[in-house]
Amino acid sequence: MALAFDDFGRPFIILREQESKSRLRGLDAHKANVAAGKAVARSLRTSLGPKGMDKILQSPDGDVTISNCSTALSHSPPPNDGATILEQMDVDNQIAKLMVELSRSQDYEIGDGTTGVVVLAGSLLEQAEKLLERGIQPIRIAEGYEMASKIAFDHLEHISTRFEFTAANIEPLVQTCMTTLSSKIVNRCKRMLAEIAVRAVLAVADLERKDVNLDLIKVDGKVGGKLEDTELIYGIAVDKDMSHPQMPKRIEDANIAILTCPFEPPKPKTKHKVDIDTVEKFQTMRGQEQKYFDEMVQKCKDVGATLVICQWGFDDEANHLLMQRNLPAVRWVGGVELELIAIATGGRIVPRFQELTPDKLGQAGLVREKSFGTTKDRMLCIERCANSRAVTIFIRGGNKMMIEEAK
What we know:
Elements (H helix, E strand, L loop, with lengths): L1 E4 L5 E4 L11 H20 L10 E3 L5 E3 L15 H7 L5 H16 L4 H20 L4 H22 L11 H11 L8 H15 E2 L4 E2 L4 E7 L7 E3 L1 E4 L11 E10 L19 H24 L4 E4 L5 H9 L4 E2 L4 H11 L3 E2 L11 E11 L4 E9 L5 E7 L2 H7 L1
Parallel strand pairs: 7-16, 10-11, 10-13, 11-12
Antiparallel strand pairs: 1-2, 3-4, 5-6, 8-16, 9-15, 10-14, 14-15
Helix pairs in contact: 1-3, 1-4, 2-3, 3-4, 6-7, 8-9
């Protein structure tokens, strides 16, 4: 131990404890790493299977979450599978972190078997420990496991059964999907959810190439209603509604103008202010504003737009004028959603009214406003888009946890 002083003259003590620390090498290091992996697997093992028990997880700030249980004591949705339990566990050891990564990659690639894969890895480590004690080199053990996995894979290929399906006969796919939903909280609606999942995948799948772009399937949910109200929308669902309550709620064969310019008169770039001291001056300024709005709405009408989707808001004056001119509009649509709508409908995002032309409009077979719940929440469904097979699975549920589980 030694005394030293910092730049401000404050004393601090240096403790020399390096001699008391030891570094594990060889077999001891292997055993320590195996023990860490086994500890993670052991903590998950009891939650596996039909008699699996729930886990109580306490966060650093004292929030308590019960896994596999509908009565969560925290605000976040409770975990039900291995990947989510491990995400919420505070793991320090590097080997234990590898187990968490293993579970996460299983969840990303397959979406199921997250607990089983960790338990299996823990069991393999347990068997490896016995081989290490007999003096077998770790690389040899790893090679043995590699050979064993090939034999197991070949055996699975040998005993597997092939199910033939077509776009008309999807029953084999629905039956397969139902088996993976049996262990989840949503198993009471597994038939309906399995059909929705299969129809969503087939809507975006290229059966000739046997390729599925899962990014085209958007999974969205809103609290309220029951799980049976879940539906598949062949298009894009946006959490917005028409800007005026008297605008039409259903537009067929819509020509959509996608704008990033606001329905507002241009703001002066200088810092000068305008003093209005007479009624005549006010009337002149109001007339000028009215003219601006008039021109903007007329430009949209001239190019043949039947729906305007705008990134920014517009005031009541412009809103009223749009309603009078029978031009439905949606405001405050986010940038990501705007891009998604543009890709799906084959439209172009227009930054200025002067650049609006008929070839920049997007096409959709049906645009409808959907209302639900006791609070009359509303959202916009853009269906039968010209340029995309994108679909949206819209989930309903009594609370946030049910929706997260269904997702």
